[in-house]
């Protein structure tokens, strides 16, 4: 669905003061190979380097930690962590752990009297029957799947957040011992992102959506 076919009614947040809340989830590899900053080693001189430093074995199926969060210009929800061993995130898992336990409390606490527009990630579990039911029951205005444009990360600054988040996690050569160690590190790093960060990250979302609708999605790529 191309961006200029988003209905004005559903996306009225682009035209008035209604805040946009968006969510997303990522997997973080335990070995850190999915983070570009860990792809190479650097040296300041020509001297012998141990093979254990130059070459690092890469597991075919490394352990992963799933991380989910919802953000707006006023802050963020609590994060949800899930070990890959616990299985994939289906509609019921997403409804219970992300929507009911984290998104709804965030909305009620941060926007008690203000309308918002929830812009979910396009993952199939995010639009499952049980999720839609709870969103409607709680009277949360959300962008319908039919109107949710695919492949427009440049309009979803939460993608930039994930990049910054992973960068901070693996800064200083951090190497987690196990999934629990990675989770503790992620929780600690998450606290380094304050309200000002999210306000700056999200401040141009509505303007960029309007501009992309008029000039094409590539127009907002910087």
What is this entry, summarized?
By secondary structure, this protein is α+β, with helices and mostly antiparallel strands.
Beta-strand segment tally: 5
Biggest beta sheet attributes: 5 strands, mixed
Number of domains: 1
Helical fraction: 25-40%
Question: Which second-level CATH architecture applies?
Answer: 2-Layer Sandwich
> Roughly how many Å is the radius of gyration?
19 Å
The overall pLDDT average reads: 83
Describe this structure in words.
This protein has 222 residues and is of the alpha+beta class. It has one domain: 2-Layer Sandwich (Nucleotidyltransferase, domain 5), CATH 3.30.420. Strands 1, 2, 3, 4 and 5 form a five-stranded mixed beta sheet that branches.
Helix-strand blueprint:
Elements (H helix, E strand, L loop, with lengths): L18 E11 L21 H4 L9 E9 L2 E2 L3 E4 L7 H20 L5 E4 L9 H9 L20 H12 L9 H12 L4 H8 L2 H11 L7
Parallel strand pairs: 1-5
Antiparallel strand pairs: 1-2, 2-3, 2-4
Helix pairs in contact: 2-3, 4-5
């Amino acid at each position: 669905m191309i961006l200029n076919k988003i209905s004005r009614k559903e996306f009225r947040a682009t035209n008035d003061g209604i805040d946009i809340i968006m969510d997303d989830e990522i997997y973080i590899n335990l070995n850190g190979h999915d983070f570009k900053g860990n792809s190479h080693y650097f040296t300041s001189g020509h001297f012998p380097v141990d093979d254990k430093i130059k070459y690092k074995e890469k597991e075919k199926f490394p352990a992963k930690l799933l991380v989910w969060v919802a953000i707006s210009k006023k802050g963020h929800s609590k994060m949800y962590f899930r070990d890959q061993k616990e299985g994939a995130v289906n509609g019921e898992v997403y409804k219970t752990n992300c929507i009911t336990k984290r998104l709804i409390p965030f909305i009620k606490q941060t926007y008690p009297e203000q309308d918002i527009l929830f812009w979910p990630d396009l993952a199939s579990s995010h639009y499952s029957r049980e999720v839609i039911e709870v969103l409607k029951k709680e009277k949360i205005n959300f962008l319908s799947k039919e109107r949710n444009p695919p492949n427009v990360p440049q309009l979803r600054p939460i993608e930039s957040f994930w990049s910054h988040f992973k960068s901070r996690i693996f800064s200083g050569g951090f190497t987690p011992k196990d999934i629990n160690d990675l989770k503790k590190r992620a929780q600690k790093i998450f606290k380094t992102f304050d309200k000002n960060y999210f306000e700056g990250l999200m401040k141009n979302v509505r303007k960029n959506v309007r501009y992309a609708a008029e000039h094409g999605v590539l127009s907002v790529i910087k």
